[in-house]
Amino acid sequence: MDRRTPGQRLDASQLGAELGERATLVQFSSAFCQPCRAT
């Protein structure tokens, strides 16, 4: 299932660098957020 909607993708010109084969996903939302803990 593809949940992407227009406007969610950044291209190389927006990032200021060429896109590579790998990426890191960082998500900052949760229904159960708690204060960050040291790991």
Shape: elongated
The helix content, as a percent range, equals 10-25%
Total DSSP helices: 1
Spell the H/E element sequence: H
User: Could you say which structural class the secondary elements and strand pairing correspond to?
Assistant: little secondary structure
Average the pLDDT over all residues and give the rounded result: 74
- Alpha carbon gap, first and last residue: 33 Å
- Percentage of residues in DSSP E strands: under 5%
Low-confidence stretches: none
Sheet with the most strands? none
- The beta-strand count equals 0
Radius of gyration: 15 Å
Protein name: Thioredoxin
Organism: Streptomyces sp. SID7499
Offer a quick outline of the entry.
This protein has 1 helix and no strands.
Labels describing this entry:
39 residues; little secondary structure
How would you characterize this protein structure?
- Helices cover 10% and strands 0% of the residues.
- It has 39 residues and is largely without helices or strands.
- The protein is elongated.
- The model has no long low-confidence stretch (mean pLDDT 74).
Task: Itemize the secondary structure elements and their pairings.
Blueprint: H1 12-15
Organism: Streptomyces sp. SID7499
Protein name: Thioredoxin
